[in-house]
Amino acid sequence: MNKFEQLGLNAALLQAIGDMGFETPSEVQEKAIPVLLEQETDLVALAQTGTGKTAAFGFPLLQKIDVEDRSTQALILSPTRELCLQITNELKQYSKYIKGLHVVAVYGGASITEQAREVKRGAQVIVATPGRMQDMINRGFVNIKNIAYCILDEADEMLNMGFYDDICAILSDTPDDKSTWLFSATMPAEVARIAKKFMADPVEITVGAKNSGTATVSHEFYVVNARDRYEALKRLADANPDIFSVIFCRTKRDTQAVAEKLIEDGYNAAALHGDLSQAQRDSVMKSFRGRQIQMLVATDVAARGIDVDNVTHVINYQLPDEIETYNHRSGRTGRAGKLGTSIVIITKSEVRKIHTIEKIIKQKFEEKAIPSGIEICEIQLLHLANKIHDTEIDHEIDNYLPAIYQVFENLSKEDLIRKMVSVEFNRFLNYYKKKKDLSSERSSERTSGGSIKAGDAVRYFINIGTRDDFDWMKLKDFLREALDLGRDDVFKVDVKEGFSFFNTDGEHAERVMDIFSNFQLEGRKINVEISKNDNGGRKSGRGDFGGKRERRDRFADHSERRSERRSEGRFEPRGERRSVGEARPLGRRSDASRDRQPANKAFEAAKRRRKS
Ligand code: ADP
Ligand code: MG
């Protein structure tokens, strides 16, 4: 009898499990499934990410759903859209042989009426994010008054994200006699509070020691200018020739871009994020496990299930928005008693976040300097020497040696060694000779935002407008997504025909310039310039409507008028403006001809593309 069968799962599920290639249940599945199948009970299960919690609740839930009844019987709440879709997809796979079972995903950012329609067609299981679910309830699009099961997945994450009130409101709309199952990686006070408030005498399951990774992980941070982030990453990789690492970025776009740059620069790297198909992700993970990939660049959500042995470094290319996520990230290394290092690359303005993290993880960070080119050469040379020293000899080579000996006939042992290691040395030396010391810039006050301080509003020019089908709402959404900023962080969005303006707080200026220093929209280079420091602008009108009303005043500003003229199509690039391409120290991106393509040409090209 198959191990899953022993847990009491029925034939339809077993067949799907077979298709998915699951052979043995994970610990949390082994512990939770029989309990949930046999009893109508509340349950709290604590298990680290990637331990198979979805199936631990998914299998028993699907088996318990009455498919003859088309009403909503179960609600699963999960923190993010990605996880919501991931759970939905998993459940669909699990239930592919259960006829008449419907699972519907309900999440923000997609049409609510379409989701309402799907629910209406009959969805026994709804997987939802709390915010959208509240919306659906308020509009009478769902009825959860008679559900039998409510599952809180990644409960700690949901509460971290501030969904406490939403969860309480949603749960108060469900019947008292339902069963509530709570799954979480950790059990902070808020999770305990939810459990206490909404659960009756729950069965408790804990898998693995909590925070088992921490004792074996050391934490380091490196302070660099935002524009040097990528260069810093490369140096860290070069300074650790045997690196086997997971690199975390905040957005899918950054993840993809960093991976692509690394690959271009000759590293064994790959991206892992939600825009890849399952097959692509599986193939990336397979290569990573097989160590053909040394640097896996991933988003938090995509890396959630990652449990790979012997990861040497976790690199936070950007800090996560939620500081608590840091724990999930650093837990990818230092597993199974091995030692690991968790590295954070940050800008000066983020240093205080390190102190916050130190408090949460109850461990100290060590501040380190990005290795200099010389140090890297040294490390690489020693690595090469050791590698040569330790290389095992396959005697097949003997056949080729006579010819080789002949080539080296006139060299002494010392000269031979010198030449051999020079092969590698020259490569690094040539690369690093002209590079400046990244860490020495720590003392410098200059950032790509000049003397911009947090608290000052900064106004930007961007070369897209109504001609590119943007109105202020669309542009604001686009900016927020591209910059990965919060609801109120982009303001005073003012869209004109060929270009637009927007504001952020000074603390985001570096990031804005950094992200838009190399940003393509449908193949076209997006150009963002700092228009001016808009001191106090935020206070005088945060919303976009406010911004619109003020437009007249701001029109008097010279820099805007200059830009306005420029958009007419007669713009010549000028040295004085803060062109992102110029500010960039790294070779590849300063391709002046591309960066300085006159705006009108770009527009013409964009228009042609749209027409065709
Ligand atoms: P968690 O929610 O605990 O973070 P998931 O439920 O997302 O973990 O599972 C992580 C990955 O492990 C998923 O890709 C899932 O398909 C896979 N998985 C789950 N259970 C098993 C199993 N018993 N055998 C093999 N793979 C499994
Ligand atoms: Mg999960």
TrEMBL record:
Keywords: ATP-binding, Helicase, Hydrolase, Nucleotide-binding. It comes from Flavobacterium fontis. PANTHER family: ATP-DEPENDENT RNA HELICASE DEAD (PTHR47963:SF8), DEAD-BOX ATP-DEPENDENT RNA HELICASE 47, MITOCHONDRIAL (PTHR47963). Its EC number is 3.6.4.13. SMART domains: DEXDc (SM00487), HELICc (SM00490). Residues 34-205 form the Helicase ATP-binding domain. It holds the Pfam family DEAD. Residues 225-378 form the Helicase C-terminal domain. Residues 2-30 form the DEAD-box RNA helicase Q domain. InterPro entries: DbpA/CsdA_RNA-bd_dom, DEAD/DEAH_box_helicase_dom, DEAD/DEAH_RhlB, DEAD_box_RNA_helicases, Helicase_ATP-bd, Helicase_C-like, Nucleotide-bd_a/b_plait_sf, P-loop_NTPase. Residues 530-612 are annotated as: Disordered. GO terms for biological process: response to cold. This is RNA helicase. Signal peptide: none annotated. Residues 530-581, 588-598 have a biased composition (Basic and acidic residues). One of its GO terms (molecular function) is hydrolase activity. Belongs to the DEAD box helicase family. GO terms for cellular component: cytosol; ribosome. A motif (Q motif) lies at residues 2-30.
